[in-house]
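Retro notes, item 3 of 5
We never archived the inputs for the alpha-D-ribofuranose complex last cycle. Fixing that now. Sequence and ligand:
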Amino acid sequence: MVQTPVLIDTDPGTDDAVALLLAAALHMPVRGVLSSYGNLPLKQTHANAAALLRALDIQAPLIRGADAVSPNAEEIHGMNGLGGADFSTFLPERDCSVSTPERLLETYPQWDYIVLGPLTNLARLLHDCPAVCQRIRSVTVMGGGFERYNMPRDTEFNFYCDPQAVQTVLQSDLPLTLIPLDVTHTVTLSLRQIHALPQGCLRQKLFKQVLLYNCAAGIGHGCGGAVLHDAVAVAASRFPERFCFEQTTVCCDRYGHIARLTGGKKMRVAVRTDSRWMYEMLAKSMAYLEQL
Ligand code: RIB
Ligand code: CA
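Structure as it came back at the time:
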């Protein structure tokens, strides 16, 4: 069966790194990656994405996306965005991301688009190149929170970074699946679970360091363990049958706060998943690293 190419729009970020690990271990057909500002400035997130793609042997073009000022998330992701884990050995000698997001979309007739950071890249594509956006078959977004928040004014980080982009995407006719904090916070990994993961090779040691940093930040914020928001979004895109969804209509205010309101954008919203299954997926993904 021919699989629809996947484009991952990401601001690595510790949980973005685990999301990319999952995509690699699941052999998802990742045919393009867009870097974005967010957890850190673009310079750092783009370098992180380049190193992660090489470390995970994800052979897809990496395109430099949007840069903008965003809240400092070093407390959650570390000064280098990867919990201090040093992936520099995997960093390519030179940056070969010479193309543009619209040129990338033109390489395949259809895409499943997964957003793990601010929606700035997608909103720009919708505004500047509406025709090429017709190639986007589905959009899975990690973002927003209905009763869970992590930023001021009852918002979530990705939506808080660029609320206008959220509104642009909600006004489009793109088929959306939303993975909000309300469901990502139900999947936490304890310190014990993380220590039980394999660490025999360099890649496993590095990803375990990423997980431990995320876990410490999560515990520091009262979450009880590592909260891997973006990995949940990738899992939902690949295995929707493992999630419960509701069909609803969603509005976004000028700060990025979302609510279920009549007249909002129709979309599928993830409401529940199986955290034990997610851990099993992560454990298999860590084991996969031994093959690289
Ligand atoms: O609110 C969580 C989201 O914001 C995740 O995507 C995390 O990586 C940050 O980008
Ligand atoms: Ca992210």
